[in-house]
Automatic annotation (TrEMBL):
<feature type="domain" description="N-acetyltransferase">
    <location>
        <begin position="16"/>
        <end position="186"/>
    </location>
</feature>
<keyword id="KW-0012">Acyltransferase</keyword>
<keyword id="KW-0808">Transferase</keyword>
<dbReference type="InterPro" id="IPR016181">
    <property type="entry name" value="Acyl_CoA_acyltransferase"/>
</dbReference>
<dbReference type="Pfam" id="PF13302">
    <property type="entry name" value="Acetyltransf_3"/>
</dbReference>
<comment type="similarity">
    <text>Belongs to the acetyltransferase family. RimJ subfamily.</text>
</comment>
<dbReference type="GO" id="GO:0005737">
    <property type="term" value="C:cytoplasm"/>
</dbReference>
<protein>
    <submittedName>
        <fullName>N-acetyltransferase</fullName>
    </submittedName>
</protein>
<dbReference type="InterPro" id="IPR000182">
    <property type="entry name" value="GNAT_dom"/>
</dbReference>
<dbReference type="InterPro" id="IPR051531">
    <property type="entry name" value="N-acetyltransferase"/>
</dbReference>
<dbReference type="GO" id="GO:0008999">
    <property type="term" value="F:protein-N-terminal-alanine acetyltransferase activity"/>
</dbReference>
Amino acid sequence: MFTSRNWPVTLEHGPVRLRPIRRSDEAAWNEVRARNGAWTGPWDATRPPEGADAGRTFPQLVGDFSRQARTGAMLPWAIAYSDAGARHVFAGQMTVSGITYGSARWAMAGYWVDQRWAGRGIVPTALALAGDYLFFGLGLHRLEVAIRPENAKSLRVVEKLGLRYEGRRPRYLHVDGDWRDHEMFAIHADEVGPGGLIGRLAR
């Protein structure tokens, strides 16, 4: 079960680090997002026109994420990457949301990475770190990832980690300005094995 000791938490494997996203990331976040508009735009969640909630500033977003993290509802990580031993730089986000305990014990992961660092195994490593923490640290049973059918690079991430395909959910999430179909992938704790998801990357 989640307790105050479970957040904040930093996870690391090789050059990839997951650390809590913070207000001081604003400049780096804005720079990376502006430079990656065409890269991330087709996969970015958007607000449906019927939604009443207004947009949030970056400090408001981080504040809301931090409050939810302290209650155990989500885990909002920045992905940091160290290239050739250099200091870690802001490289993307890994957000675990919808964390549920009781008889469900599941969560959903979403992620993006700076195109500058694409193709280096950063996101598979980040997702493996997050999944192992959910299963072995928090005792969750199930991790889900929803991916647009056209997002070949993201589909490759779940393939590398051996997540199970569970079918298509029509008009599942509002992404890039409309309700979009998503392919659903999942893995259960008892499918992972003692080496964890990180161990699957080694294979």
